[in-house]
Structures
1.
Amino acid sequence: MSRWGGRVGSVAVTLVAALLVEAETAHAAPDPRSTSAPAQAAADVVADVPVAPASPAGAALAAFGPTGVLTVAVRPVVPVSAPGTTADAVARTSAGSWSAGDIDRPVPTASLVKLYLAEGVLTAARASGSAVSPADLARIEATLTTSDDLAASELWVAHDGPALLADVVARYGLRGTTPPAPDPGAWGRSLTTASDLARFLVLLPLQAHPDDAALITGLLARAAPVGADGFDQSFGLLGPGRTADTAVKQGWMCCVDDVRHLHSAGVVDDEVVVLLAEFPVDVDWPTARAALDAAAQALRR
């Protein structure tokens, strides 16, 4: 999980040094509320059901409390054998969809961009008729299981991360996902929305090659208890009460624009669930974790 946003340096030593500084910063200080600009209003193929107080998303929002800002998106998984176009298949999820918060507001991805990065690398290799190198496969595994920032930075540089992300955006019809600016190397500062993440995860088994989709979800199901940087990954959808059938990517990032980010997104049982949380500077990591854990547990009731 990217604590600082995966800033890419010219040499590996610079990357490692930057990550160490980021880890210290993240454990030391919390961060203020995001001031990200609202996304352009655009209807998604996935219809969003208004939040009712008794809805799962509404319950998660209530359990999260006033410590920060939470966005929730819940979608049923579409069967791989769904007939018709992918748009038709995704539209079928509207009956079982729930949302809370502004799901179209772009927020920094932190390490959730690694989902897009992994799919992009795998798909680009198939499009070119070449095999993914063993080194890149190892990097993809590291980014999705231990959220290794150095591995993500190496993939981002080697495969032109901004161009790769733009290709994923086009193929999946994402509306609020953009590469990092002004620094194209700071991959964790790429922006995305809860709506886009939910759409990507719903479409993954339909849009990606079956072997690639299976690889990604299989690695997410093997998320390590502790990240490569020592950060405890057992929060949110991987927190207390998690089910055995859980394939999730975690994200954390501290102090970018004075905001603490804590994200949890993936497939839990037969649902795609996205939880994106932001906290002000006086909220520490334990408090942030507790709020996101409470939200995730409320979804399971």
2.
Amino acid sequence: MASSRAVPNLAFRRLRARRSPGEFAAAVRRAAREIGEQVACDARYIGRVEAGEIRCPNYAYERVFLHMFPGLTLKDLGFSPREHVRGRAARASVTTADRVDTANTRSDTSDTGEESDVLRRAFMTSGPVTVVAASLGLGGTAVAAVPTPRRTPRLVGDAEVIAVEAAVRRIRLLDDRHGADGIYRQAAQPLRAAYALLDSGTPARQSTADRLYAGAGELSISVGWLAHDSGRFDDARSHYAEALATARMVNDPGVEAHAFANTSFLAKDSGRYREAVRTAQAGRRAARHLSSPRLLSLLALREAAGWAKLGDRTNCEQSLSRAHGLFDRGPSDADPEWMSFFGEPELESQEALCHAALGDWSRAARHAHRATALQDPHFARNLALYRVELATDLARAGAPDEAAAAGNQVLDQLDVVQSSRIHTRLAATARVLLPQRRVPEVGAFLDRHASTNIRA
């Protein structure tokens, strides 16, 4: 078993210091861009390095790590010599986890539009797992639907679980960079495949079953978010409910809290404001023993948004204060992997939305501006979203020229970001600015916006 051979990489863990795995992964990506590399580093990759599952990075990661920590060697970073890991002798006895990582690190050097070799290597069996790979364009033979599960149950092991978990990471990565519209329908196929796997397979161990259910729940939430962000609210609600049922079936409070957090966000966007408050509170109860102040902070923000939409300034301010207090406790090793997006920019953005809902446009604009200034460009979809929020707030605060400038920045991103939510909000901003068309900057923005054929 991979876990029986892995030796924790304590040297690498010390280098991360007080940063969360997600924050450290973001720092790795920034360092890569500084030297012209491109790596798809996320919190899970950092976790696997620290757990000792990745014993030596590929050449791209090696260059990035040595750039980040000048004067240190791979040995100083806690890694094994490459010849011990990649040589013939090592390959003869390599574990499943090592095989997958070898493919994973190779794929991180490719362009974002290329297929990821990690999932081609991870999806090693036929049946539903192959559908997971094929449906995201990650290897295997493309099929139109999930095949009928076998009547005779087959044993489900680490390879299948890794495939489901890798599909979740791949979806999140594509969403961060490009938005939901272009990948939602593709992503629905691996979700069906994952649940077909649950129905047709017999996990080899209880720990495998737990990971498989958790992976299926997270995959359902990820696909639900793609539906949510692309304006398919009914589909999103169904996916979130499926994730919640899966979490409760196996008593997984982490997936349950995640499902409630997303359900609260969806309820707010759907105009069900009291439901937004209640589901955020339910998420807080699910997360209370998870030792993640940042998760509780996010749930407090979800609750604040519901109160703001209800016009309840007192409860909104109390929830915002609680969110800031929890956020200021800093990151934790218990922070869920999916929360890598939740840093100071998202905190500022969510607070801006609350003030906007209460009609405090100038205050909202200040927070939205801070969100755009702080956001890592890697999260292209979120950066575009923050900018469109800033444009709306400025337009309503009486600064049409500045609003037009922010709107133009959003238009600059639309060739790589496809999100119905962003399109809808940008169209709303254009309508607010329409009476100010005579302002030169506004007129130019409105003409450019009209030429993109965006529809609200």
3.
Amino acid sequence: MAAAALAAAAGADGITAHLREDRRHIRDRDIERLKAEIALPLNMEMAATPEMQAIALAVQPHAVCLVPEKREERTTEGGLDVIGGRASLAPVIRSLSDAGIRVSLFVEPEAAVLEMAKTLGAPVVELHTGAYCDAPAGPAREAELRRLQQAARHAEALGLECHAGHGLTYDTVGAVAAIPTLVELNIGHFLMGEALFVGLSESIKRMRAAMDQGRV
């Protein structure tokens, strides 16, 4: 809660919290307290499982972002398989949407994936920026940036609200923030690591400044 309060004071527009099935990041009570005690919108990241669906329906966060989970990963790696998993995703999306919760899907920046997200009825997609952030500076990273730009344009054409996130740093966030149709960026791990050196408030302020500079 203290971290969320510091983030709000430092200029964050919302709080994203990932309640994993193994509870390694946060616990159920944390989600409840964030919803009750923080004025900013709460975006709950979760796997599309019956257990998580029930928790989201009970807590009623502002938004839910459906993400894949693997036991061996340190954090979420890669986008949802919305094409292969469409049969199981559709009822979860419908149930959460019917409850008034904004649903987003964490996806790869690929046209077919975005089109399936639209078919499934999700109003929002969050583009996975991991490949862009992992690519070395130069032609490889520029190619990944173009993928993100093209995907954002395609999402807009489909009528999807477009967000982005994963692995963004001070060095990589500006070009992504400059994509005009992106509405929201979700950044967490880098900020917490940087906070070890400069404090959480300062890391968020610097990131916000880098994002705003990208929008200029």
